[in-house]
Structures are given as C-alpha cells and as structure tokens.
Amino acid sequence: MDLKAQAQGFMARKAEQLSDELAKKYGVPIAEVAEVVNSFLDDTYGPAIAQVQSIERMGSKMVLLFIGKKDCNICKRCEPILESFLSSHRDLQLVKLDYCQPSGLLYHMIHSQKNGMLPLIAFILDGAIRGIITGECLNTDAYERYYNDMLAECSQNIYAH
Asked: For residue range 27-71, what is the model confidence (pLDDT) as tens digits?
C-alpha cells in the first residue's frame, strides 16, 4: 500500500465528505464550499502530509514509523522493545510521531477505521507500507519477521530489472 496514495485518497475522501456536509447544511453548491474545505484540510492535515513527503524523500531507506501517545500504556511498553530491535538494525530509519501533534494525524491516513488503537507501527520501504501493527506491542521476533520480509523484497527487486 503506497503511503502517498493512501494520504491522497484520505484527503480526497475527507474533502468530498466535508464539502457534501457543508453544502447540505447551508443549502449551497459544493463548489461554493470547496475552497474553505480545502483550506481547512490543508491547515489540519498539512503537517501529516509533510511527514508523508519526508518519508517519501527517504527513498529506498527502510523506515519504521511509530505513532504513539505519551499517556498510552501500550505505547510506553513498546518503546523499549522497539529501541532494542532498532539497536541491532541500524539500517532502519525511525520516524516517531506523537498522535497528539498535527503530524500524528498521519495515523488516520494510514489506518482509516474510526476505532483505531495506538500505537501504530509501520514498516515502510520505497514509500510503501510493507507491514502494519496497531494497538499492540509485539516482541522483537515479530518485528524481526516484518524486517526480514522487507529485506527479502529488497533482494527480489534487485533481480526485477
């Protein structure tokens, strides 16, 4: 699942939903509220979109995205496990976001269910999400499997040309 396409799809769905709601509420054409809706979405989700672009610029680096919250017990439990995992995988670039910050809204672009749970941990390669975990803290063996799957995909891509 392509991260950029996921974010763009989310923004398009939100724009359509909000435009439709406002147009109905005020009895005006959708085109009349589109500029306001787009401005609102840019202000609200701009930092998350910037984060998507930042991850995309990392190119072929393998990225581990962690979106958590300071007062989330599961997030707190996950952090030392992920730190241990990352200490033996220096080729992984950690992108750590706080759900309560504007850039943390990336969570909703990736995980579109209304009842999502924290943390969100995603393994990303070449701008595409290769594995995602939400609402639970796994052991290092589980993270190792996601990592090895990404490595296997990298080696397969070498021979694709």
From this structure: 999 999 999 999 999 999 999 999 999 999 998 889 999 999 999
For residues 18 and 37, is the Cβ–Cβ distance under 8 A? yes
Domains of the chain: residue spans and CATH:
3-158 (3.40.30.10)
Nearest to 147 by CA among 104, 80, 93: 93
At 89-107, the pLDDT tens digits run 999 999 999 999 999 999 9
Tell me the pairing of strands 62-68 and 92-98. Answer: parallel
Q: Are 148 and 91 in contact (CB under 8 A)?
A: no
Token reading at 142 = 């589980």
